[in-house]
Design brief:
Blueprint (H helix, E strand, L loop, with lengths): L15 E5 L3 H12 L3 E6 L2 H14 L4 E6 L5 H14 L5 E4 L18 H24 L3 E5 L22 H26 L4 E5 L19 H8 L7 H4 L1 H8 L8 E4 L9 E3 L9 H15 L8
Parallel strand pairs: 1-2, 1-4, 2-3, 4-5, 5-6, 6-7
Antiparallel strand pairs: 7-8
Helix pairs in contact: 3-4, 4-5, 5-9
Length: 308
């Protein structure tokens, strides 16, 4: 695969895209999609950051079509409200970028609905959002859903006996579980799209290691060893625009395949240009993917149904 960059994004004129997250990778993804001509809806819980992101994109690309909508992925009610508003505004959705996330809070926290915040936001929130938007995705014809995972998923395991980390909370293993779940969701969504004839290409991507705000929201506190190492070894991490390339590739490149997983092509997939990524063994377990999907249905109370 050649060194694919944002300059290779084909025209997105006439397409509508939803990107979750208004900072970091979400901002870069929204900016490049808007620059390529898509109508972009940036969805985030932080209205101030959302407004700033929209203003920045318009200052760089005055002709861009971009707006902000409030969405808290840690609230199933907020997800439902966002989906209802979007359905009232458009009949089809061409791109859904499940990007936003929470990374390794030092103590265990819960969402509005009582889920562990990383599993509840990163996985269940995006599961619910995709379910709610399924009719719009099907109506668009050949829509793409891009779900952002992480290289942390390699060390992840789905603890089916304690998905909410109530018995014991360790920030990084719980984060890794949530990102493994995101990858398993993307792969299972592709299988179901093919079986049900939805016409949706479900694709996963990961950014390698990028200098996003999430990188610094990790255990240890201001003086912790991990934080000091991150500050000293900054040169190992790629800039955010580079980190956004795999998900932009998955969203727009003609050669990106449904059921594919893309990340950087450098050593250990830490940095570089978009290329097929290695799928961790747990995500290759189809029975586990189905089990996780069914549990998500039970936890969210949602089914993937084409009718509105």
């Amino acid at each position: 695969m050649s060194r694919w960059t944002a300059a290779d994004i084909p025209s997105q004129h006439g397409k509508t895209a939803v990107v979750t997250g208004a900072a970091g990778l979400g901002f870069e993804t929204a900016r490049e999609l808007a620059r390529a001509g898509a109508h972009v809806v940036m969805a985030s819980r932080n209205a101030t950051k959302g407004a700033e992101a929209v203003a920045r994109i318009l200052s760089e690309t005055p002709q861009a079509s971009v707006r902000f909508e409030s969405l808290d992925l840690g609230s199933l009610a907020s997800v439902a409200g966002f989906a209802d508003r979007l359905r009232s505004q458009t009949d089809g959705l061409d791109l859904l970028i499940n990007n936003a996330g929470v990374m390794t809070p030092q103590r265990r926290m819960e969402t509005e609905d009582g889920f562990e915040i990383q599993f509840g936001t990163n996985y269940l929130g995006h599961f619910a959002l995709t379910a709610r938007l399924l009719p719009l995705l099907v109506n668009a014809g050949q829509a793409r859903v891009v779900t952002v995972s992480s290289i942390a998923a390699r060390g992840g395991a789905i603890d089916f006996d304690d998905l909410q980390a109530r018995r014991g909370y360790r920030p990084m293993p719980v984060y890794a579980q949530s990102k493994l779940a995101c990858l398993m969701f993307a792969l299972e969504l592709q299988r179901r799209s093919q079986t049900q004839g939805w016409g949706i290409a479900s694709i996963a991507a990961h950014p390698g290691v990028s200098r996003t705000g999430l990188l610094y929201n990790t255990p240890g506190g201001p003086g912790g060893l991990r934080r000091v190492m991150r500050a000293m070894l900054w040169f190992m991490f790629q800039p955010v625009p580079q980190g956004a390339l795999p998900q932009l590739f998955a969203a727009t490149a003609p050669e990106a395949q449904g059921g594919g997983y893309y990340g950087p092509d450098g050593r250990a997939e830490l940095n570089g240009f978009p290329a097929p990524a290695r799928v961790p063994r747990p995500a290759q377990d189809v029975e586990a993917c189905v089990r996780l999907w069914r549990l998500a249905q039970d936890l969210t109370g949602l089914r993937f149904e084409v009718r509105s």
